[in-house]
Amino acid sequence: MDKKKLVEAIRTQLENDITALKESVKATIDAATNEESKAENEYDTRGLEASYLARGQAKRIADMEEALLHLKHLNVKSFGPNDPISSSAVIEVGQQGTASK
Questions:
Q1: Alpha helices in 1-101 (DSSP H)
Q2: 43: how many CB neighbours lie within 10 A of its CB?
Q3: How many domains does the chain have?
Q4: Are 85 and 13 in contact (CB under 8 A)?
Q5: Is 94 within the bounds of a domain?
Q6: Cβ contact 29:54 at 8 Å
Q7: Cβ(76)–Cβ(12) under 8 Å?
Q8: Are 25 and 17 in contact (CB under 8 A)?
Q9: For residue 32, what pLDDT is reported?
Q10: Would 86 be classed as within a structural domain?
Q11: I need a labelling partner for 101 at 20 to 30 A (CA). Which of 40, 57, 63, 89 fits?
Q12: Could you tell me if residue 57 is inside a domain?
């Protein structure tokens, strides 16, 4: 397994997801501020719900951007079979007593 290619693929996917989510946030903000979202009565919460959704999406973007920043600065190391586990190690875990196929 080429860890550098794997990290790059994850970074690319995150960047694409962030771009798509930013477009979604724009649409959600437009929905929240649109004249049609204005409450028609005291029980109409469309605009309020859209603003909550936009806030949640913005938080998700911030979290994804933070993860992307960590990946951009990740030092992908090569490990030998007896090296201690640390950041960027790929670990294969098995379970005793089970047959592998």
A1: 3-33, 46-72
A2: 6
A3: 1
A4: no
A5: no
A6: yes
A7: no
A8: no
A9: 77
A10: no
A11: 89
A12: yes
Query: pLDDT by residue for the chain (101 residues), tens digit each?
Result: 788 999 999 999 999 999 999 999 988 888 777 777 677 788 878 778 888 888 999 999 999 999 999 999 999 998 888 899 988 888 878 888 765 55
Q: Token pair for residue 7? A: 């990290």
- Per the structure, the complete domain to which residue 56 belongs is given by 3-72
Angle made by CA atoms 3, 13, 86, in degrees to the nearest 5: 35
34 secondary structure, DSSP code: S
Residue 55 lies in a domain: yes
- Contact call for residues 91 and 78 (beta carbons, < 8 A): no
Task: Spell out the residues 6+ positions from residue 66 whose beta carbon is closer than 8 angstroms to its own.
Answer: none
